[in-house]
């Protein structure tokens, strides 16, 4: 059985005593209107199927959460992908950041698809999703893509 590449890569990173650094770039909302727009830094530490995600938010607020892999849809391998993704996904954010149809074409049903809810020390809430293509030839942290949205109307692109 082949382990999801993201989980293996992140687990190896943790075993090496490392963590992945993520950058959150505001692409829509009040923060994206600032000049220059702020860039927030996060740290991702991994286990086999989940791990911690910490981030420094606006005005020095820190937040933390635990990412987990999203279960793949069950059913026959040739089953049709639902036309409208289930609630709780960030399909519209993926499409805003990476282009129309990106979520259905790339993220939905992927083996390397994770979600995290990050709660800040001052009450801010940030929802994020991460994805790594199944067909990446070289598994590197740079191939992981992500999106996030907060409770203040901001949408972010996440890059490693």
Question: How would you describe this structure to a colleague?
Answer:
This protein has one domain. It has an eight-stranded antiparallel beta barrel with strand order 1-2-3-4-5-6-7-8. By secondary structure, it is α+β, with helices and mostly antiparallel strands. It has three helices and eight strands. It starts with a helix and ends with a strand. The chain has helices spanning about 5-15, 90-100, 100-105; strands at about 20-30, 40-45, 50-55, 60-70, 115-120, 125-130, 145-150, 155-160.
| Major beta-sheet overview | 8 strands, antiparallel, barrel
For the CA atoms, what is the radius of gyration? 16 Å
Q: Kindly state the number of beta strands.
A: 8
Tell me the helix content: 10-25%
Question: How would you write the strand order of the largest sheet?
Answer: 1-2-3-4-5-6-7-8
Number of helices, counting only DSSP H or I runs of 4 residues or more? 3
Structural class: alpha+beta
Concise summary:
This protein is α+β, with helices and mostly antiparallel strands and 160 residues long. It has helices at residues 5-15, 91-98, 102-107, and strands at 20-28, 40-46, 50-56, 62-69, 113-120, 125-131, 145-150, 155-159. Strands 1-2-3-4-5-6-7-8 form an eight-stranded antiparallel barrel.
């Amino acid at each position: 059985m082949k382990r999801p590449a993201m989980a293996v890569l992140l687990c190896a990173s943790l075993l090496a005593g490392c963590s992945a650094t993520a950058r959150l770039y505001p692409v829509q909302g009040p923060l994206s209107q600032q000049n220059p727009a702020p860039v927030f830094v996060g740290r991702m530490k991994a286990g086999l199927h989940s791990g911690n995600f910490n981030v420094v938010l606006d005005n020095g607020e820190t937040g933390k959460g635990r990412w987990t892999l999203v279960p793949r849809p069950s059913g026959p391998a040739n089953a049709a992908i639902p036309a409208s993704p289930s609630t709780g996904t960030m399909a519209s954010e993926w499409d805003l950041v990476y282009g129309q149809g990106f979520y259905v074409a790339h993220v939905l049903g992927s083996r390397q698809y994770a979600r995290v809810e990050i709660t800040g020390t001052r009450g801010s809430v940030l929802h994020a999703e991460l994805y790594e293509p199944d067909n990446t030839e070289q598994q590197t942290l740079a191939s992981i893509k992500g999106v996030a949205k907060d409770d203040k109307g901001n949408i972010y692109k996440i890059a490693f």
